[in-house]
Amino acid sequence: MRTVLLVDDHVLFRESLALLLRQRLPELRVLEAGSLHLALRQCERHPDIDLIVLDLMLRDSRGVLTLERLRRACPGTAVVVVSGATEAGLALELRRLGASAFLPKEVGSEDLLVLLRRLLLLPEAVAAEHREPLSARQREVLERMIEGKSNKAICRELDLSEATVKTHVQAIFRKLEVNTRTQAVMAAIHLGLHAPGSLLLPTD
Q1: Among 182, 66, 91, 8, which residue's Cα sits nearest to residue 16?
Q2: Could you write out the DSSP letters of every residue in 22-56?
Q3: In this predicted model, which residue has the larger pLDDT, 49 or 92?
Q4: Cα–Cα distance measured from residue 195 to residue 172, given in angstroms and rounded to the nearest whole number
Q5: Helices (H), 128-161
Q6: Which partner for 190 in 5, 9, 117, 118 could form a disulfide, CB atoms 3.0-4.6 Å apart?
Q7: pLDDT band per the 50, 70, 90 thresholds, residue 194
Q8: Residue 26 and residue 13: Cα distance in Å, rounded?
Q9: Are 80 and 51 spatial neighbours (Cβ–Cβ below 8 Å)?
Q10: Is the distance from CB of 26 to CB of 73 less than 8 angstroms?
Q11: How far apart are CA 7 and CA 49, in angstroms?
């Protein structure tokens, strides 16, 4: 059984997320911690934790220091940072410190569930591996979507019409079996099309 640790000092958010995971991903064991201190204790008690969902701003630790301390305590554990902070450069810093992904708290619950399935290689995500491959041009478009660029920006960079870019985007959605740019970015992680540590999910 895979184990996920939720670290957030906002009790309502943490408990709601725990309830969601227990209902939608019953194959997971879900642990909780409301502070960095309690999270470190959970890591000591459960060395088999597979993934940590972390809020950077806790009552006893704030900012990237929170991730640094947690990574030192659990060096082999994947960490997804979920935060309301979206300042420039944050995703790059989190990548340098070893985070697997960064999600703004505005991202919907379905997108979070998709990401966790992919990072934990749960059966539903594994079964989705065998998809129609992307063309070279579609990979170019997807890479720029991952970088957060708009269709118009992609048009300029690739010297394509906006209608052509829209066609490529729809083909990417179809082949990756997703409905939004956020889900396409997360699918790119699982398929090895983009390094997960550099992930900053867009808001659709």
Answers
A1: 8
A2: HHH-TTEEEEEESSHHHHHHHHHH-TT--EEEE-S
A3: 49
A4: 18
A5: 136-146, 151-158
A6: 118
A7: low
A8: 19
A9: yes
A10: no
A11: 13
The reported pTM is: 0.66
Q: Is 195 helix (H, G, I), strand (E, B) or coil?
A: coil
Which CA distances in Å does 96 have to 38, 92, 155, 186? 25, 6, 31, 19
Per-residue pLDDT reduced to its tens digit, 15-64: 999 999 999 999 999 999 999 999 999 999 999 999 999 998 899 998 88
Cβ pair 54, 81 in contact under 8 A = yes
Closest CA to 27 of 125, 130, 131: 125
**Alpha carbon distance 195, 109 (integer Å):** 22
pLDDT (tens digit, 9 = 90+) per residue, 149-189? 889 999 999 999 999 999 999 999 988 878 888 778 777 76
Inform me whether the pLDDT recorded for 95 exceeds 50: yes
Report the share of the chain in percent with pLDDT over 90. 46
In three-state form (DSSP H/G/I as H, E/B as E, the rest C), the secondary structure along 52-101 is EEECCCECCECCHHHHHHHHHHCCCCEEEEEECCCCCCHHHHHHHCCCCE
And the tokens for 58? 């806790």
